[in-house]
Amino acid sequence: MKKISCGAYDDTKGIVRAVETLLEAAILTILYYITWRTLYPSSLFPEYYYKGKYVLMGVYTLLILVFFQNSDCTLFGQLLRLDLVLGQVIALFLANFVTYFQLCLIANQMISPIPIAVLFVAQIIAAVVLIFLYAGIYHRLYAPHNMLLIYGSPQAIRLKIKMDSRQDKYQIKKLLSVDAGYPTIYKEIPKYDTVILNDVPGQMRNDILKFCYQRRIRIYIAPKLTDIIIRGAKNNTLFDTPLLLIKGTGLSPIQRLAKRIMDVVLCSIGLILTSPFMLLIAIAIKIEDGGPVFFRQDRLTRDGREFSILKFRSMVVDAEKFSGAVLASEQDPRITKVGKVIRATRLDELPQLLNILKGDMSIVGPRPERKCLADQYEKVLPEFAYRLKVKGGLTGYAQIYGKYNTSAYDKLRLDMMYIENYSLLLDLKLIFLTLRIMFSDRSTDGIDLAEETNRQAQELAEELSKSCEL
Q: What is the DSSP code string of 335-387?
């Protein structure tokens, strides 16, 4: 089968995914209908076995689509299959959880959860089959992008190493330094269907962007901090000259109040639901080495205020007594056996629900840093302090889309994207996505992988430098 080019890809990708999503939602709804009709006695829902059944099916389909949308689990071919499966399992669990209590209200009694559990298992099997089918269709239809990376510094080459991990979707065929000059760059661009700009000087970036835009060439731009700030600006249309308003104050008082209310409500529910797990974790930590269950550490939150963050202890007692304040590596000997498990699943962070209730943190926000580490970052990246315009969070953009070894600059860009585009709906979406990454080990990569990435980037930079000299 001939693969579709990038131009056609833009026209068909959204339509194909929409059809696939609706088809899957229809199949999952039919499974729900079969379960509801066959495994529950008709006496429980007499009025809904007629036209009312269409209402129930419509509500269920809507729930599926809403949870799928907020879990990013229908990006077939874009996300890894495992991420799609995890996202859909979580979305289906939430949809069936809500539906079970909906049926209890309709029946006016607590009904058996077993049929819903059977439905959940059947839906997982169907979802896995469809995800692999859809991903296969995507890779058969759409060829990887043929890309040119234009870079402005040796550090920018690291992006190629990252994108090479997804060669099923991105294939960077050539790297070109801005030092090559306009004539060479303009001559090379039309040979590729996609251009990536990373750390390119402002004026040159603007010129290349216009050049590609005029010729309908796809272009990716690694944003600078100013780009992210501008994206969060408000339009001012009082005059015939467009104006963008940037307040730079973080969240408004109304936004902070709404966010605080949501934090208190969701954390209260979270503490009730997770208390059994927290008790088991506490017992396991105590049994392993007899040391304290909790670990406290001073961190920074909004406006640079320090507070004591609370975590389950995942390392040996006094782990930093000899090593000092250093990031944990993948095979760090200081991590205990229980610690490896709770760190991999983020369960060591659960006690921070108490920090959130107290008001030191929020559920979603930039990850609080230690002052000593923040000071080090700010020496080379003064803008790192921008993260302190909002409260520190249990989860956020950097935790979901970044990795443990993500650079300070990339973490800052991710956190600024959250601050400048904040909304309650965005918070809810990031909470859903956090549930997915709790079961994925890719974001727990230690500094070992960062060192390997830096090594590969350095070797690539040296090769490019030698080729230029020749």
A: B-HHHHHHHHTTGGGTTHHHHHHHTSEEEESPPP--HHHHHHHHHH-GGGGGG
pLDDT (mean) for 426-445: 77
Across the beta sheet with 170-177, what order do the strands follow? 170-177, 145-151, 194-198, 218-221
| Contact indicator for 453, 405 with CB cutoff of 8 Å | yes
> In terms of DSSP bridges, do strands 294-300 and 306-312 run parallel, antiparallel, or are they unpaired?
antiparallel
How far is 161 from 159, CA to CA, in rounded Å? 5
Give the model confidence (pLDDT) of 202-218 as tens digits: 999 999 999 999 999 99
Where are the alpha helices (H) located in 142-252, listed in sequence order? 158-163, 182-188, 202-214, 225-231
Name the amino acid, one letter, at 15.
Answer: I
Helix (H) or strand (E) holding 148: strand 145-151
DSSP 431: H
A 10 A CB-CB count for 441 gives 10
Neighbours of 160 (CB within 10 A): 19
Contact 281, 347 (CB under 8 A): yes
Report yes or no: 416 and 225 within 8 Å, Cβ to Cβ: yes
Whether the Cβ atoms of residue 417 and residue 401 lie closer than 8 Å to each other = no
List the beta bridge partners of residue 195: 148, 219
Handedness of CA 407, 411, 412, 413 (dihedral sign): positive
* Helix or strand holding residue 95 (H, E): helix 81-107
Q: Give the distance, in angstroms, between the CA of residue 372 and the centroid of all CA atoms in the same chain.
A: 27
Per-residue pLDDT tens over the stretch 119-178: 999 999 999 999 999 999 988 888 888 899 999 988 888 888 888 888 888 899 999 999
Query: End-to-end CA distance of the chain, in Å?
Result: 42
Side chain identity, residue 431: I
What span, in angstroms and rounded, lies between the C-alpha atoms of 251 and 418?
Answer: 11
3-state DSSP call for residue 29?
helix
| Residue that has been written with the tokens 């020749």 in this structure | 470
Give the model confidence (pLDDT) of 272-309 as tens digits: 999 999 999 999 999 988 889 999 999 999 999 999 99
Element (H, E) at 243: strand 243-245
**pLDDT tens sequence across 160-176:** 888 888 888 889 999 99
Residue 428 burial (C-beta neighbours within 10 Å; 0-12, 13-18, 19+): middle
Alpha-carbon distance values, 444 to 258, 343, 396, 406 (Å): 31, 8, 15, 10
